[in-house]
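Moderator note: this is an archived Q&A kept for reference. The question asked for a predicted structure of one protein chain; the sequence and the answer are reproduced below.
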Amino acid sequence: MQPLAEACAVAAQWFQFLFKLDQFFAQQQPQRTHGAGVAGTGQGSLIIEYVCLVPFRLNQRQHALQVSHAAGLEQDFAESGGKQRLAIARCQFCGGGNGNAFRRVCPCVSTQRGENLQPARTRHAAIQQQQVESLGTGLRQCRRAIAAGLRLRAKRAESIAQETAAGGVVVRHQYPRMEDGFGVDLQGVGMVGHDEIRVVQLYLAEWRDMRSTSSHLLLCCCLLLAIGWVMPARADVLLTAKSVNVPGARLQQVTVRIGEGAANGLHLQLSATQADVPAMGWRRLGLTLDGGLQRDERLRWIFDGSMHLAGAQGGALSDAHVNIQLSESANTLLVDILQGKTQANTALPLDQLSHAQISLKNLPAGWLQGLLGTVWSGRPTAGRLDAELALDVRDAGLQSSGQFTLNGVGFDTPTGTLAGQGMNGNGRFSLDTTGGPASIDLDASLHGGELLLGPLYAKLPAHSVQLGLHANVQGGAFDLQRLRVSDADALQLDGALAFDAKGELKTLKLDRLHASFPAAYQRYAQAWLNTLGLRDMSIAGELDGSLDLRADGLHSFAFNTDSLNLAEPDGRLGIDGLRGGLDWAVQDERPTTTLGWRSLQFYRINNGAAQSQWQSHGGTLGLRQPLEVPVLKGQLRVGELDWRPAAAKGQRLETSLVVTGVDMAAFSHAMGWPAFPGTLGGAIPSLRWVDDRFELQGGLSVSLFGGFVDITRLSLQQPFGSSPVLSGDIALSQLDLGAITSVFDFGNITGRLDGSIDELRLVNWNPVAFKANLLAGSGGRISQRAVNNLTTVGGGGIAGGLQGAVLKLFKTFGYKRIGLGCMLQGAVCQMSGLEANGDGYTIVEGSGLPRLQVIGHQAQVDWPTLVRRLRDAINGTAPEIH
């Protein structure tokens, strides 16, 4: 049993080391104070009751060594800074069998420290309402000589007790009374040998000059190791506690079991129904540790076993292997964790356990959910990472810095304003949550994947993109005070970005922007332009600019280019050879700029080269002089133009336009219509951009087909959206029916046409509602083909008993009036004519002989059917009437 005897000596050394360690801490930091945590009574106490009867062989030298260590232990208790009362019962040496045996009753220790602690300046770690039980059996006889030797030890202990009796540290034995076979009084030795430890209370109140984090965690560890090591190999020790508090962590409903392990080691099991580590964002987790505890030849304590956390985000440490090494000589605590492909290594100095050096390999990003949750509302969604970092846990938060490597990492936020997917890369970071808002610095090189920063969306290329930022995070608000992006062949920008707690944009400031197209469009601008209705754009060239957008609106913007080409695929917008720029601010007056182009296309209408001059004044960007633009062999003259970019509502733009000499054939071709003859001219005295629509104030008068077309109440809503909406009223006056019917090949009709198309509404350029009435009231001639087409359009027939054979004898007919009406609602056209006639309505009222009258019988016609009938009539196909 020599190893066990040496173990007793080691235990005594451990207790001696504990109190010397506390004294060292007090000497190193006599002035340090801590503001968090107050001991309930301002006093610290340690009460341990330990009764142990273990048979083993002990020679005289080992006996002397054991007595010496025990006496040294008691003396160290007396010299530990508190006063001491000592009542040591006699532990008896006994003999029996074929050799010497030792029965010992180890001391019960009750210490009182520092009765005058200052509660407001203390920290504490507590283990409350603990019970420890360990039972074993053994029965030995005792030798009087050895018993006498133990009395010498007790006498030495009594001497120490007398010196410290008034001090508040009580050491006593608890035992039954008995005598050995030689008549020697063996107080404290029970007839049935057993080991029993009862930790009645362990409440450690930290001195105000003690280290804030490491001291009591180390004391608790050392105390547990010392108790476990002095236990005989066949004994189990069970400790239970309602709660264990150490700086940075809290365990509740704790159970620790220490038993016999392999290779002369110990088997340690620890479980806690609830573990909280606020700095990591871990709360209400279940904790289980199970493994072997040994001390190697280098006097290091080594725990090797399994660790299970229940309820941690991302399944962190749900089934991990853990190896813990504690080396007093190296002043180091090492923790190595392995779970699947994930590996984590941590090194902590024993005198500053609040500091850790951590190495992470193949760590699931989801494991960081708890830690990230202490800083911002985002959450990782996928991917893995490697990292080398330093971590300092402080009273007010934590500090960390290091380097990392990402592999397919994704994240998002509840508001969706910040997100990433499939990102790869590496970089350096720093995090500080101790000074109010959490501060984050990041310098990274990213490639692949997607990244969303508010309105800025990036589809990252295969090569590296440099990303640098400094951010403050508090209460869900995210403030990127410094944002830098560098993509060599696409985009370079420096600026700032901020969101409030609801995810609403507060600031987007781009101090410097340089974009190279088409790469910049494909990687960074495409998603943003899609929201404006500009999809699948073709862009080439370079652009420099700046932007200041805030919660209350746009404050400034500027851009300049030497050459930029862009085109929208359906021809709604296109610019070739754009050069120059614009410079606008909401308050300051900005210098005059020039902007020109080789050609400009707007809704498939080509405009020629032009150059304009602009200046910002009082928040309005305006033309310095009228702008003349060639258009379709004619000219468009833009008079005054005032644009208010900061106006989120109300009037944003106002201008006046004059159109002269526009070729109608070219215009018709651009609009996809049949070729109309003549020229187009007109004036728009006031065109305004109000809210999200363009409004025509006054009216547009166009000379067309020998008459006039007046357009009023014209409005174009969402002009660049996916479904623009056009509305207005159109009045027709004295149009030449001969010219119109020759264009549409409907059949020849002479005379003049008047009419109106009121409440016209087109969605994505398709009619959805209108009230149309057409009237040729001055008489004229109508061809047989036109009669047939009008008949089929109205779904009617020819009245007056005129037979088909007689009708074929005439090519044209005289008419007095022609009238046709249609009110479109819900894809159904309510048909009407000149007047009601029985169950129908009159479309053509004849004049002269042969007298012709066309009656319509279909009062309601499906709009697509009516359009098909008109198309067939124009194309010369006989329409089908059902």
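Archived answer notes: The longest strand covers residues 379-394.
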